[in-house]
């Protein structure tokens, strides 16, 4: 696929379906060209979100256990490919792709086979119907379209999985729904990220209804100088600078990360004398501030950094006196 080969009419139709976001409306995909055009554009943007998720997981010290990755609701297969690319075939013994659309399953399998020669890539329909263990269950950008039967199937698959990675758009409704799944499934899994604790999600606590757990992935800087991406953003009505996402990472082996960490939700708000942020830690949600005069380097870092916003704070009440970005111990 190249920019000259993109089917813009197909992308327009797909965009309308994405905005509907209703369950039970049938498969998106009508032709292989639909999938190829999507994978090259919308799919690539989803890949950038997965890059941010996987970077954070590696920073937290997480890697998948040995076994097969099942990319459920795969579409063009971008999520499964990003996971394999990040962690390699030493850990991942195979990739199974599943979608309601047989056309999508074929496209995702063929594309992954080309990208990873020698990797065992299969149609996931057989794995779903079996009772064999799953190494890693991958789910991406499907939640607002799932019927109750789909959620029940995902719960059954999670029960057979060693770990689950689930990434969604960063909208309020979808993020809060994902948080409810996190709370339910965390009874059987350790919570790896984005949380720094395994307590019930504080976003869902009474009084915090206006909040939702979301983050922003950094798009590759070169796209802003690429006229093709600029044209795509204009035609799709997308702000290329903004990549909001929500995610959960669960693992049965996980016994908890380092204590004392916080995760910043959304983007810090910068004002002339201070920065304000929404902080999540085991004590719940708190609006914290850091004065620019007392923390000039932190003030600048929180404005410029592209890293996941995982920090260890020193605080006096709701005022940050110092902060250090979390980095894994060598």
Question: If you had to describe this structure to a student in words, what would you say it looks like?
Answer:
With 330 residues, the protein is α/β, with parallel strands linked by helices. It has two domains: 3-251, Rossmann fold, CATH 3.40.50; 262-325, no CATH class. It has helices spanning 8-20, 32-40, 42-59, 78-91, 102-115, 125-129, 148-159, 172-185, 227-236, 296-304, and strands spanning 67-72, 92-98, 121-123, 134-140, 161-169, 190-193, 215-216, 244-251, 262-270, 274-281, 284-291, 310-316, 319-325. The longest helix is centred in the first third of the chain and has 18 residues, at 42-59. It is globular and about 55 Å long. The model has no long low-confidence stretch (mean pLDDT 93).
Taken together, the total number of domains comes to: 2
- Shape, per Cα inertia axes: globular
For CATH, the homologous superfamily of the largest domain is named as Vaccinia Virus protein VP39
The major pleated sheet works out as:
8 strands, mixed
Q: Which spans have pLDDT < 50 for at least 5 consecutive residues?
A: none
Q: Report the span from N to C terminus.
A: 41 Å
Secondary structure: helix percent = 25-40%
Element string (H = helix, E = strand): HHHEHEHEHEHEHEEHEEEEHEE
Instruction: Please compute the radius of gyration using only Cα atoms.
Output: 20 Å
CATH architecture of the largest domain: 3-Layer(aba) Sandwich
The average pLDDT value, as a whole number, equals: 93
What portion of the residues fall into strands of 2 or more residues? Answer: 25-35%
């Amino acid at each position: 696929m190249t920019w000259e080969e993109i089917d813009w009419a197909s992308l327009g139709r797909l965009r309308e379906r994405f905005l509907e976001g209703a369950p039970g409306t049938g498969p998106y995909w009508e032709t292989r060209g639909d999938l190829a055009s999507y994978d090259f554009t919308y799919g690539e943007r989803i890949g950038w979100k997965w890059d941010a998720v996987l970077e954070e997981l590696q920073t937290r010290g997480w890697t998948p256990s040995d076994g097969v990755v099942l990319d459920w609701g795969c579409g063009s297969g971008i999520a499964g490919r990003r996971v394999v690319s990040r962690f390699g075939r030493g850990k991942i013994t195979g990739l199974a792709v599943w979608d309601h659309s047989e056309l999508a399953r074929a496209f995702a399998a063929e594309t992954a086979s080309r990208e990873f020669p020698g990797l065992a890539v299969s149609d996931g329909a057989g794995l779903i119907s079996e009772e064999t263990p799953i190494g890693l269950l991958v789910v991406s950008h499907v939640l607002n379209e799932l019927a109750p039967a789909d959620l029940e199937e995902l719960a059954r698959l999670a029960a057979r999985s060693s770990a689950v990675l689930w990434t969604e758009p960063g909208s309020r409704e979808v993020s809060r729904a994902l948080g409810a799944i996190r709370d339910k499934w965390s009874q059987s899994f350790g919570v790896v990220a984005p949380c720094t604790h395994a307590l019930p999600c504080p976003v869902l606590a009474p009084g915090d209804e206006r909040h939702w757990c979301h983050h922003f992935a950094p798009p590759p800087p070169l796209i802003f100088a690429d006229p093709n991406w600029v044209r795509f953003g204009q035609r799709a009505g997308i702000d290329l600078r903004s990549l909001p996402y929500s995610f959960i990472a669960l693992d049965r082996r996980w016994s908890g990360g380092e204590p004392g960490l916080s995760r910043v939700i959304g983007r810090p708000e910068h004002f002339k004398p201070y920065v304000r942020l929404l902080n999540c830690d085991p004590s719940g949600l708190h609006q914290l501030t850091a004065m620019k005069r007392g923390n000039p380097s932190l003030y600048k870092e929180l404005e410029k950094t592209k890293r996941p916003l995982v920090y260890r704070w020193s605080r006096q009440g709701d005022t940050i006196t110092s902060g250090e970005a979390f980095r894994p111990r060598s």
